Structure prediction request, 244 residues.
Amino acid sequence: MSGGATRTTWATVVASLGWDVALPFVCYLALSAAGWSAVAALAAAGGVALVRAGIVRLRTGVLGALPLLLCGKFALGVLAALVTGDARVVLAKDAVVTACLGVVFLVTLLARRPAIYHVRRGLGGDPDAWAARWDSSPAFRTLHRRMTATWGTVLLAEAAVRVLLAVTLPLEPAALVVPLLGALTILALVAWTQWAAGSYETTAATVPTSDTAESTTATARARGATGSRSTGSPAENTGAIQRR
Prediction:
């Protein structure tokens, strides 16, 4: 990875931790200090997602899937606050979204192309080139199915741990630790995905894949068969010349 790419990655990490963990926690503390109930403070702190979605909309002109997901999480938090009145339920509500994502990832393993294939292709790739590579390379297909299975399994595990922390930790530490766990989990999955993809590309560039080996073998056999048909023994060639 180049220095520029590394700096960009770390900038993304810092921005994500700031938006998704630090700022909501600061809002929660400020509202609690102002006399808000824990339920109301947690639900309102989730409104940072709306601010983030608005900034993305103004900068890009597009309201993509991530801002919509963040808005959905905020709406779910408000609904949990209104229905249950329990601060811990509000805190654990993101685990529902995470678990649903994990299930979706695992279900797409039954589809022709799994979720991570679509995610990586959408982040930067020629769709036609990706489709051709998918169709021609079993190793490429295995890589993306393995990535998707890992994402789905880890997200389900993270959702379970998040609920456990939300109901067992004191409320104030939980307000920091629970969202921090979610952010770090996603960042770890993204880092692992980049590493796995980079390792695959390095291996593919230095070691012939089974597809390449089979293709080379088939080509060699075809050339051998052509040569055997066109090349006879010296006596056969001499006889053929005499007949002519």
